[in-house]
Design brief:
The structure is a homodimer.
Chain A (H helix, E strand, L loop, with lengths): L2 H6 L3 H8 L8 E2 L1 H8 L3 H9 L6 E3 L2 E5 H15 L4 H13 L5 H48 L1
Antiparallel strand pairs in A: 1-3, 2-3
Helix pairs in contact in A: 5-6
Chain B binds a DNA duplex through helix 1, helix 2 and helix 4.
Chain lengths: ~150, ~150
Amino acid sequence: MTVATKKAKMGAARAFVEAHGEAEAPDFFSISDLADEFGVTHRAIRFYEAKGLLSPKRLNGARIYSRRDRARLRIIVRAKSLGYTLEDIKDYLDLYGQQGEGRIKQLEITAARSAKMIAELEAKKQQIDEQIEELRLINEVCRRKVAKKKAR
Amino acid sequence: MTVATKKAKMGAARAFVEAHGEAEAPDFFSISDLADEFGVTHRAIRFYEAKGLLSPKRLNGARIYSRRDRARLRIIVRAKSLGYTLEDIKDYLDLYGQQGEGRIKQLEITAARSAKMIAELEAKKQQIDEQIEELRLINEVCRRKVAKKKAR
DNA sequence: GATATGATTGACGTATACGTAAAGCTGGGG
DNA sequence: CCCCAGCTTTACGTATACGTCAATCATATC
């Protein structure tokens, strides 16, 4: 598909997307835009929506994603690669979506939960460092043996 | 079950385990030992064996785990918490099990693979840092708002 | 208007990682 | 000798996270 014919063959969503914002900083995205950008399938994105992690607007049935939706998807993909379940991620997004609304009690809960998550992530970094340490050992042992064998 | 009767009701594996090594630095472990230590079920440990990640010795059918088996299980649990599949972990354990054996070609491959894994783990740390950064923001916003509301 | 592209909704299938229930050895205590 | 605790295998079930059709619809070009 050439660049010339591309625009011609766009669907409703993509047309709407290109109408708003000139390429540099788009305000809206089609499902294919996000799928391409984050390396996930359309199916996965719709699945996240079915699980309540996303809730894009519609245009003639087609999904229209805002920047906020895109930010949420970025979080989903990142957290998944760190081993979190969609259930975990949903909790995080709920917290992320509130961004300090509500009364004192709610704010304190959110502060506590975010602090807890930070602690868990620091623990994970620790685990990664341990793993890296072991790998460095293996790596050095191998390289030394290679050097020794080549020296003969 | 009391401490007195515990020894009496031990199975073959546990008896064997207690016979070798006096509590401080055991050489062998029963499946329950490892399950307790790493917070996983017996079922999970057997499953890892079925997938080729562990291969303990047997005594009258009962599994006897060596320190090396235990080290491997530690790696499995850790890597799983970082989001790796058992398939991924199997590859890592294969590499870990060799520890620089074989000829030059093999050593170079192992060195390259370990280097690659290190790079991937560093990338994961980066992702974690991004996530932490967002959480810090949320946390601070909440705490400031709480402070503001309480100041009135 | 036929055709092609891209989107949508079901519905069913699949891979991973175990859980769970059933049935059977085994070794020591009473 | 029997029982019980703990281990075993076998087998089927389950939750998560999608993959894969199939049918359908809208839009846009030929």
